Amino acid sequence: MKMVRQQRALVFMVSCACLLAATLAASRRLTDRKASVDSDLQEATIRENRSPRLQSHEPAQKAVSPDAVGPISRQVIAGGGGTSSGGSLKVEGTAGETSASKTMSGGSLNLKGGFWNTLDSTPALTPTPTATPTATPTPALTPTPTATPTSTPTPSVTPTPTPSGTPTATPTPTPAPKTIQFSAANYIVVEGDGHVDTIITRSGDISGAATISFSTSDQAAAQNCNVKNGIASSRCDYEARFATVKFAPGENAKTISIFIIDDSYLEGPETFQVNLSNPSGASLGTSSSATITITDNDIADGADPIDTSRFFVKLHYLDFLNREPDQGGWDFWTNNIDNCAPKPSCIDAQRINTSAAYFLSIEFQQTGYLVERTYKAAYGDASSMSTIGGTHSLAVPIVRLNEFLLDTQQIGQGVVVLQPGWETVLENNKQAFMLEFVQRSRFTSAFATTLTPAQFVDALFTNAGVTPSASERQAALNEFGSATNTSDAAARGRALRDVAENSILQQQEFNRAFVLMQFF
Asked: CA neighbours within 13 Å on the CB side: how many for 481?
């Protein structure tokens, strides 16, 4: 048994079957009497057991004052049974005592000492109830030992966490704008270098494709080549260059070369401009234009270089084929002029023949001349005024110089006839050009996609001035398959190419295109 103090009173707790004999660590076997405090803690009960059996009881506790006396009942369990009551239970002791004694006399139980502790110094432990044993016929009874109560540990106080400050949200970084621009605002080239490279870059997200238009420009207008005012001219000092620059996904730089003419004039530095426009897939950067400065390499004025055969041939490569001359072709055509006889009368004739040869070359017929015929089939003729033989209206090719240069350079890009794979390069360039051409706003405005294939094809042949054979017309119609409209851009491009490459159109347009090239 244990006693604890609660506030000013003491608690007397009976927690085992061995109430009449107690020590700090053990209990004594009970064979004749048992005392307990009942469940309501108001009275004690004395039970005599004539046979060696242990009666059950319920452990309980009662708050009492030291030296208190309470009533008890006495129950006799014997042969015939019977009950008598009376007597008292007296509890004596002082807090802190560690031993107990008992006196049993005349029906009264006097308990002195015991396990006394103050509640405010030692918490009460909840006892484990004693199981009720089963009586056996053996002479001696071994009581079930009382389980040692398990103390409930005092829970640790969980410290209140110190609230941390509200974290500052990290702003989502603004993506860098997608731009296309020149790598520099100025490029310098020596006149004798032959060409200048301009670099076009793009920044920001370059994971997608992008395109931009490239062009050269100057303020020279129609000034003669011997004018020395610091302004470079596309007629004298450099070759005009137009291009649609295409960036593949992940590509961040492109190089565009411009041919420089090495003339024979002491003219000092001359400048012209390169420009970017019409971006797609990005916007123009801050350097959308740049200045090209040509540094002079002459120490005095010399003879006009066009009068030399080598320079004359080189200009034809640049003008007709938009490329630097290959060494074999350059040597052949130069010698064709210089080795003629009789001189000097044959020189002029050989120059004319050489110039005509470039117009008739496969390379030009399949590039520049195809461009002229494509514009003819798409838009017909332009009208102009002529004063020869009196003022009158005259039908002329509709293509203009800048349009011609842009498209001819696109089809001829990378094409050098007789080099390995040139046919494949040319075919791929043609297909790409036709597909792009029919998607330009000028073309889509002239040919609505609601037109039937027959209406579309007939309009192209009418513009070309050609009456096609049944097979030629059907070949163009077949490009659309079973479609009832002409919304398929690829089919439109193929049909336009069928008309532009028509043999009758090539014959009819030949002389006009030859004269046009002399102006261009």
From this structure: 6
Contact predicate 151/257, CB 8 Å: no
DSSP state letters, 172-228: PPPPPP-EEEES-SEEEEEGGGSEEEEEEEEES--SS-EEEEEEEE-S-TT--TT--
Taking a C-beta distance cutoff of 8 angstroms, is the pair 383, 502 a contact? no
What tokens appear for 332 in the block? 């052949």
Least confident of 18-32, 145-159, 334-348, 500-514: 18-32
Burial group, residue 327, by CB count within 10 angstroms (0-12, 13-18, 19+):
exposed
pTM above 0.90, yes or no: no
CA 65, 66, 67, 71 torsion: positive or negative? positive
Contact indicator for 263, 302 with CB cutoff of 8 Å: no
Residue 123 pLDDT exceeds 70: no
Asked if 180 and 202 touch (Cβ cutoff 8 Å), the reply is yes
Q: Which residue has the tokens 């070949």?
A: 475
How buried is 126 (Cβ within 10 angstroms: 0-12 exposed, 13-18 middle, 19+ buried)?
Answer: exposed
Preceding amide of 342 cis, omega within 30: yes
Are 316 and 354 a contacting pair, CB within 8 Å?
Answer: yes
- Where helices occur in 308-344 by DSSP H, the ranges are 309-316, 327-338
User: Rounded to an integer, what distance in angstroms lies between the CA atom of residue 518 and that of residue 21?
Assistant: 138
pLDDT digits (tens, 9 = 90+) for 281-330: 999 999 999 999 999 998 898 888 889 999 999 999 999 999 999 999 99
Q: In sequence order, what are the residues at sequence separation of 6 or more whose Cβ sits closer than 8 angstroms to the Cβ of residue 465?
A: 376, 380, 505, 508
Rounded CA gap, 74 and 86, in Å? Answer: 6
pLDDT of residue 106: 56
Residue 271 DSSP code? E
Residue by residue, DSSP assigns 408-433 as HHHHTTT--TTSTTHHHHHHHHHHHH
Whether 258 contacts 217, CB under 8 Å: no
* Partners of 103 in the β-ladder: 110
- What does the DSSP assignment read for 48-98? EESSS-PPP---EEEEE-TTEEEEEEEEEESSS--EEEEEEEEEE--TT--
Residues 161-186 have pLDDT tens digits of 665 666 666 767 777 899 999 999 99
Sign (positive or negative) of CA dihedral 473, 476, 477, 478: positive
- Cα 283 from chain centre: 19
Q: Top-level CATH class of 179-307?
A: mainly beta
Q: CATH 2.60.40.2030: which residues of the chain?
A: 179-307
Give the span between the Cα atoms of 231 and 254, in whole angstroms.
Answer: 27
Is cis: bond before 175, omega within 30 of 0? Answer: no
- Identify the residue with better confidence: 461 or 35: 461
Torsion 245-246-252-256 (CA) sign: negative
SS3 assignment, position 450: coil
